[in-house]
Amino acid sequence: xxEVSEFEARLLRIVQCLMHHTTVEQTLALLVKxxxxxxxxxxxxxxxxxxxxxxxxxxxxxxxxxxxxRFLQDSEVVSGRLWHRHPTPSLKLSFSxxxxxxxxxxxxxxxxxxxxxxQITKRDLTLGDRLLLLMTFSVIRATLGGPVLLKQPGFRxxxxxxxxxxxxxxxxxxxxxxxxxxxxQRDHAWVLxxxxxxxxxxxxxxxxxxxxxxxxKDMQKIGELQTRAVDALFDGVQQHDRKDLCVFLLxxxxxxxxxxxxxxxxxxxxxxxxxxxxxxxxxxAALAWFSAMNRLGEWNxxxxxxxxxxxxxxxxxxxxxxxxxxxxxxLCRWSAEIIKRTDPIRAVAADNA
Amino acid sequence: MxxxxxxxxxxxxxxxxxxSDHVSTDIELLEVxxxxxxxxxxxxxxxxxGFERDGDLLVRQQDGVTISIxxxxxxxxxxxxxxxxxxxxxDVSGWADEDFGRFGRKRAEEQLRKQAKxxxxxxxxxxxxxxxxxxTEQLExxxxxxxxxxxxxxxxxxxxxxxxxxxQIGEIKxxxxxxxxxSMTIVxxx
Lengths: 353, 190
Known about the structure:
The structure holds two protein chains of two kinds.
Chain A: H1 6-18, H2 24-32, H3 43-65, E1 69-73, E2 76-80, H4 82-85, H5 97-108, H6 127-140, H7 145-149, H8 160-164, H9 166-172, H10 181-184, H11 189-194, H12 196-210, H13 216-239, H14 247-259, H15 276-286, H16 288-304, H17 313-325, H18 328-341, H19 344-351
Antiparallel strand pairs in A: 1-2
Chain B: E1 4-26, H1 35-48, E2 52-54, E3 57-62, E4 65-70, E5 75-97, H2 101-169, E6 171-178, E7 183-189
Antiparallel strand pairs in B: 1-5, 2-3, 3-4, 4-5, 6-7
Helix pairs in contact in B: 1-2
């Protein structure tokens, strides 16, 4: 049994919440009540935090990365669970003082109305720090503190936060440029690999819920951020030859096509009061995933043209197999049909038919 | 004993209010022939429908709306622009107190002029919104029939391209066109 102070006990309970071991509702009272920050923490507390972070973050990633999957590694296809595909040393996570600073800030401040910012140095953020930021936002985004978190250093422009939670980010803040190249780099791409299921699930939910949205301003903000996030991801994966990291878009589309009736898209969106140019902008934003399918279709056409003697043959074969697995051709046709239906010229003609 | 007195100011504004709206889409042409030839066929068909050359674009004015088409890319832009010169006037009245003398009067007048200018800006804004709505309605009016016209254009261009392609393959023996269901049958001797 290790003894800790009252402040440290609160900090540890908050860490439990961020590691998804307790709910945010159970921890809200601690997050909103400010408490004086001590000059330093005890060794017991630091050791407990280290233990919780190392196990909690690993567990969170493992819950998504446990399945047998195939991804690229140095242009070769490797298969297996996350920890079988990558040697253990390459999966090592380190946490800097930035992580502790975030935890101290969350414990000492009212996270809805903080009196100061956490002293996080963006350029010194380690992979572990960035994952903690992602997990923190994942837990807190639906509370009043979500928009406040996005104003703190390290959260805005995180990349994975915008890619995974575009709806929460878009309605809280404006003109965010997601930085996704970091997550496509050789030493960090395993994180994106492990989050494919989570990303697919999030994007499926967003697109499903967009069908019933009536607020065109929110729709446009969400769609525009989705487009920026996906464009940043596409740039990153092309730079590092890791198009396989975009499979979650195919997964989300396949689930959408098979579970959602396709005859009612944006029926509740009332854009009649807008100029036609503004209506087009709203629909273009709303169709972010559908437009992304065009790009994925182009990649598939390129993959079809790769010969067995070409350098990227393995990569192209992997892409084609994933495309076939999730019926990419049908998804492309379906996307083109939905995009055509929202064409403003056709829409006006159809209204008057 | 102080006395209140009424002050009235009048401001006017003359300006040109502009409003516009536009929408873009693409013509989808099957590449029966190479792209340049398809573009040439499309351009010829559009010129026959009253479109005129303006650089790389083909443009037609219709009911105050401009339709411009790039035959190379197939992009269509339909735009409406309206402008109206407006002469606005805003009268505002208020009260001032004799006790505050000339300075008080000046301050009261400044306040009223500021209110009058704000009123004029609101009027101008309202005019612009109405003009924008008009531009959108003009655009919608033209778009109602435009899709049908474009579909017809695409069908004719495709039919022309098919005939040319067929002539390249062999000798055309017979061409039968059914305008009701939009089908065409070409009999070739190869």
